[in-house]
Design brief:
The chain is an alpha/beta fold. It is built from 14 helices and 25 strands.
Length: 489
């Protein structure tokens, strides 16, 4: 669920199609009959806990069949689930649980044993946070925290149902489809590749997060289960085309989260000869809002596309005035799927705004719109910094750094500097067996950008870019680690 309709659908499927495979994970499968039985058993145990009616519980989102069964039990019991990343530290997770007024933290082991720990101090820590309403939401997700403390986002049950209906129609999904679920369970992508597919009676293949960067493992999952729907960030697609496999069963391949490198398009077309390619753009607050069909023969990264049916997109210039027709500015969106605001209502005034009676989310994204209504992402409003008094777009610098042929991934952050106010630092993952150095990379950037935009420091490694619990580059961690290195130097 994230909605009563979905929970009821899965309960019916467990009775009417008991032998259909619901989930695959760790070389095992769970049928709809087994999923329903596990959920009913856990619901009975929840009932014995005498939890507050319509209350909130914290369920760390371990990507396992057992946790999915527990979440279904929570939804069916009429409770609200806060589903934070299981990788959060205990202090951060407890703070989120307190803010959401969760009474207990619930976990379930591989053998189905339920553990319930009371959350202490919820009321004191929840000051300034609204109480989630079980008649409107059953699921609380959090933002990535890539630009600060994670924000709690109530996912509207009616909004989820509308989203599931849109996705089912857009991708012509049926119960015969098989989804590869790559993103963490606490990420909003799971609303499509886990919950929507389960609501249809389809098959969901859960990727083990500890093996999510193993190309051969991912190849086996897609080929072995005959996946028809693959959704993920460009890193997934890069791994899937590694060593030249072919996956003829895939009908739809969706890329989201980061810009797709143009050099990936032709290998993707070879690896997925029968697939349609889509670029999807959205965020936790609004769910998906833009869609663009990708041409594998294109020579440039795809635009974010056009608004989905029922989505309204506005562009505001630097003075907050509405841009009509072609132009560039901040993107505001209103979707049939979006949250009405954060659980901490004081954050809403800055992030949400009402125009002509309709609620819009201020994305902070800078976009350009053509006369034909096609949108292209230019960067972030909060990625604009001044280096030596010159306004600099961090995303533009990041794009140039990443264009070096030896660079696999790159993140550029702004660091405080006593002399210049701000200086740039690049954290770079190079391709294996290359000789990339910081000097060579700075020389490359200097060929394309003015002097102030050249990172003053570069960290080159073959280790993956550190990421937040929802898979986005952890810019705060990269920034803080570099500042600590400077302090001890």
């Amino acid at each position: 669920m994230p909605s009563t309709h979905l929970a009821d659908s899965i309960a019916v499927l467990s009775r009417e199609h008991p032998g259909r495979v619901a989930l695959s994970s760790h070389r095992r499968t769970v049928t709809y009959e087994e999923l329903g039985a596990r959920s009913r058993g856990l619901r009975a145990r929840l009932g014995r806990l005498e939890l507050p009616a319509g209350g909130t519980v914290c369920v760390p989102a371990h990507k396992t069949p057992e946790t999915i069964a527990l979440l279904l039990a929570v939804f069916q019991e009429g409770l609200i689930a806060l589903a934070p990343s299981p990788d959060l530290g205990i202090a951060a997770r407890t703070r989120l649980a307190q803010q959401a007024r969760a009474s207990h933290t619930l976990t379930v082991s591989a053998d189905g044993a339920l553990t319930a720990e009371a959350v202490e101090g919820s009321e004191a820590e929840a000051e300034g946070f609204d109480r989630a309403d079980a008649t409107r939401t059953r699921l609380l997700l959090t933002t990535s925290g890539s630009t600060g403390t994670p924000k709690i986002v109530p996912i509207p049950a009616a909004g989820f149902d509308a989203f599931a209906d849109w996705a089912t129609a857009e991708f012509a999904l049926t119960r015969d489809d098989v989804a590869l679920s790559y993103a963490p369970l606490n990420f909003d992508l799971a609303l499509l590749d886990v919950w929507t597919f389960l609501g249809l009676g389809a098959h969901v293949v859960l990727v083990d997060k500890d093996r999510a960067t193993e190309a051969a493992y991912l190849h086996d999952l897609v080929a072995g289960h005959g996946a028809t729907f693959v959704q993920g960030v460009p890193m997934l697609h890069r791994l899937l085309v590694e060593d030249g496999p072919v996956f003829p069963t895939v009908r739809h391949l969706v890329t989201t989260g980061d810009a797709l490198a143009p050099e990936l398009l032709r290998p993707m077309a070879t690896a997925f000869p029968n697939a349609r390619f889509h670029n999807v753009f959205g965020c936790t607050e609004t769910n998906d809002s833009f869609l663009h069909p990708i041409d594998p023969e294109a020579a440039a990264a795809p635009p974010i596309g056009r608004p989905l049916a029922g989505v309204t997109a506005l562009v505001l210039d630097a003075d907050g005035q509405l841009v009509t027709g072609a132009g560039t500015g901040e993107l505001l969106v209103s979707t049939p799927f979006q949250a009405a605001g954060y659980l901490r209502s004081a954050l809403n005034e800055q992030a949400f705004t009402v125009r002509d009676g309709r609620l819009y989310y201020r994305t902070g994204d800078i976009v350009s719109r053509t006369d034909e209504g096609l949108f292209t992402l230019q960067g972030r409003a909060d990625w604009q910094v001044k280096v030596r008094g010159v306004r600099t777009n961090l995303q533009e610098v990041e794009t140039v750094v990443a264009s070096h042929p030896d660079v696999a991934e790159a993140v550029v952050v702004a660091l405080p500097d006593e002399r210049t106010g701000v200086r740039l630092h690049a954290h770079v993952t190079r391709h294996p067996a290359t000789a990339l150095t910081g000097l060579r990379l700075r020389t490359h950037v200097g060929r394309h950008l003015p002097r102030h935009a050249i990172p003053s420091s570069v960290h080159v490694t073959e280790a993956p870019i550190p990421r937040t619990s929802t898979g986005k580059p952890d810019r705060n961690l990269i920034r803080n680690n570099r500042m600590k290195e400077n302090e001890t130097a």
